[in-house]
Design brief:
With about 500 residues, the protein is of the alpha/beta class. It is built from 16 helices and 20 strands.
Length: about 500
């Protein structure tokens, strides 16, 4: 066997073991030693060769893995895997024939086909599923040959038979968003983007389609990602207040909704609400201070970009207020002076997410990410792509990167102008207030003391400037904050509000 293919199989073995599979060779196989058994080099019927791995679930064959060397394009391996799935020798216990589950893997890249789905097709997955999930998908007694019609409906299959949407209590835009999203899911499109203006009911729309996916499509668990913890609290309240138009029960009377403020997932919860940084910390197996939930994911992403491999910050001060009301931009601090912190340890970079058996890829069927334009980059994109789940993005302000991440699948576009025209939102007028600092920046002279706040620890300390420090207008409220300038703007707005 070529060295690269052998290395691929070593990696595949490791991934299978992490996912709870017992590995053995064909000549020493005990298919009852564990709930999931992966048998290497299993001989198939004449003309079908050997299955690189034959997967047994509860003592009956359920699927195969076609192993390829690193660098091979897996799309061409699907046909070969299908051939193997049809070549199981007669007399062997099997869940159904041909085998329902097929993987193709190089160890670095893996694709999965669920033959129980209508119009099955391969999709990329981060790792292998646990045997328990495949058993759940099969949903029958082990050791019996089953036809597709006898297997329980998959999520995709149930989507094809969703009952009509009850439209009372929904605005036309919300009806269109839900209808279009469900059609996208029926077409098995893995990502969808909903653009709705702020204030036009994105969250209520989300809860409405989440309820339907739980009740009628059999979704096992849904993750709702928010940008900050306080938004998670608001979202939880909206879930609790939602009343089903189908039976008049409150959402929380039918389904457990968990607002994650620690790294413990309630396995009975059907909806989990948390920040993306919280989910990142859970996948990394690291504790995260609760107050970090209140930091925007964009700010955390930026902080991570400043760190070195040891978890220290290369640039420590974030914002510092001077005696004249000016603020310092980020200053230089040696890594020796900046202590390691839980903040820095959590976001230590570079450190890609690896498979976590305590949070397997099948933990969620659907991920809804609010303010998704903030969560699709670098550090956070790993979280979204880890789970074997449909991704649904919500935003009022998408950009071209957002459209690209969601495969250009914009299922709803409802801009502010249309919301105003429909009477859903109230229009606004822009009142611009200019100050000397907003137009031209400013300078803090040497000798003044300024208060510095560490971006990671939030610790504040005073420091004397050794030299003049100038900042540009574009740095204002990004690298620099000037409280006097903010007060000037607020006072001007107060004084002019009812006179102009």
């Amino acid at each position: 066997m070529p060295q690269k293919e052998q290395q691929a199989r070593v990696t595949i073995d490791q991934l299978l073991e992490k996912a709870g599979w017992h590995l053995c060779d064909a000549d020493e196989a005990n298919i009852h030693i564990s709930r999931g058994v992966a048998v290497r080099e299993f001989p198939l019927q004449s003309g079908h060769g050997f299955a690189d791995y034959l997967l047994y679930v509860d003592g009956a064959a359920a699927g195969i893995i076609e192993a390829k060397r690193e660098g091979v394009t897996l799309s061409g391996a699907e046909t070969q895997a299908s051939k193997y799935a049809e070549g199981l020798p007669e007399g062997l216990p099997a869940w159904r024939r041909p085998l329902p589950f097929a993987y193709q893997s190089t160890g670095l890249e893996t694709r999965f086909t669920n033959g129980l789905d209508p119009a099955p097709r391969a999709r990329p997955v981060f790792a292998f599923h646990k045997p328990e999930l495949l058993a759940e998908k099969l949903g029958s007694q082990p050791g019996q040959v089953r036809e597709v019609s006898q297997a329980p409906k998959t999520f995709l299959g149930a989507l094809q038979q969703m009952p009509p949407l009850k439209e009372e209590g929904l605005w036309p835009a919300q009806i269109k968003a839900i209808t279009n999203l469900e059609q996208s899911l029926r077409e098995n499109r893995p990502r969808a983007l909903i653009q709705m203006a702020t204030g036009s009911g994105k969250t209520f729309t989300s809860i409405s389609f989440i309820y339907r996916l739980l009740k009628f499509a059999g979704a096992r668990r849904i993750l709702f990602l928010v940008d900050r913890g306080n938004l998670g609290d608001q979202t939880l309240k909206e879930f609790q207040q939602y009343v089903s138009p189908y039976n008049n029960f409150k959402f929380s009377e039918e389904y457990i909704v968990q607002r994650l403020s620690s790294n413990t997932l309630d396995t009975t919860a059907r909806v989990c609400i948390c920040t993306i940084q919280r989910m990142y910390s859970m996948l990394k197996g690291r504790d995260m201070p609760e107050d970090l939930d209140e930091v925007s994911s964009l700010d955390l992403e930026y902080a991570a970009s400043l760190g070195d491999d040891s978890g220290h910050s290369r640039r420590s001060p974030d914002k510092a207020r001077g005696e004249r009301g000016a603020e310092l931009p980020d200053g230089a601090m040696s890594t020796a002076e900046s202590p390691a912190t839980p903040y820095g340890d959590l976001l230590r970079s570079p450190e890609p997410i690896e498979y976590n058996p305590n949070m397997p890829i099948e933990t969620f069927d659907i991920i809804v990410t609010d303010e998704c334009h903030r969560s699709i980059y670098n550090l956070w994109a790993q979280v979204l792509e880890y789970f074997d789940a449909y991704l649904i993005g919500l935003t009022a302000t998408p950009n071209k990167q957002t459209f690209g991440f969601f495969h250009q699948n914009l299922v709803m576009e409802y801009p502010h102008e249309q919301a105003v025209a429909d009477g859903v939102n109230v229009n606004y007028d822009v009142y611009r207030i200019k100050t000397q600092i907003t137009e031209g920046g400013s300078k803090v002279e040497a000798g003044y003391y300024v208060e510095q706040q560490d971006r990671e620890t939030r610790e504040k300390r005073w420091q004397e400037l050794d030299e003049d420090l100038e900042y540009q207008a574009k740095q204002l409220d990004r690298d620099v904050v000037t409280p006097d300038q903010i007060r000037t703007v607020v006072r001007a707005f107060r004084d002019k509000l009812f006179t102009e």
